[in-house]
Amino acid sequence: LPASMYMEIQREQPDGGNILTHPDYIDGNPDLIKPKKLLNPVKASKSHQELHRELLMNHKRGLGVESKPELQRVLEHRRRDLLIKQKKEEEEAKKLQSPFEKELLKRHQRLDQLEKEQEKQEDHAPEFIKVKENLRRTSTVTGDEKAA
């Protein structure tokens, strides 16, 4: 019985059971406006067309998309090697620092901080004290030059 039902459905649908309907404008009715395919704004852009043209040219020549000019490849390789070399040198310098060198570096940093603090204090000193110190320096220099 199910086979006979299938046969009836087939007779009712003359297009072979196709669910998709055909568009009405194929009839050739001149009153209907026929739809046009929409333009893709990306493909219509000038830059996309130029890029596509360049890709086609490179494909015809046998150049790959990833291939770069030789000069650019060499420069990038040198830059990469230089960065790697600098990183290695920095790591080696950190590894080679002995405890003595580390202590010297700490002391040097402390001295720099003390000098900065003294400069700040001198900046807050009154003007006449600064002038007096400058006079002392110049008088000792001129006195040493006269003795020589």
Automatic annotation (TrEMBL):
Residues 109-148 are annotated as: Disordered. The keyword Nucleus applies. One of its GO terms (cellular component) is stress fiber. Keywords: Actin-binding, Cell cycle, Cell junction, Cell membrane, Cell projection, Coiled coil, Cytoplasm, Cytoskeleton, Growth regulation, Membrane, Nucleus, Stress response, Synapse. InterPro entries: FAM107. Stress-inducible actin-binding protein that plays a role in synaptic and cognitive functions by modulating actin filamentous (F-actin) dynamics. Mediates polymerization of globular actin to F-actin. Also binds to, stabilizes and bundles F-actin. Involved in synaptic function by regulating neurite outgrowth in an actin-dependent manner and for the acquisition of hippocampus-dependent cognitive function, such as learning and long-term memory. This is Actin-associated protein FAM107A. The gene is Fam107a.
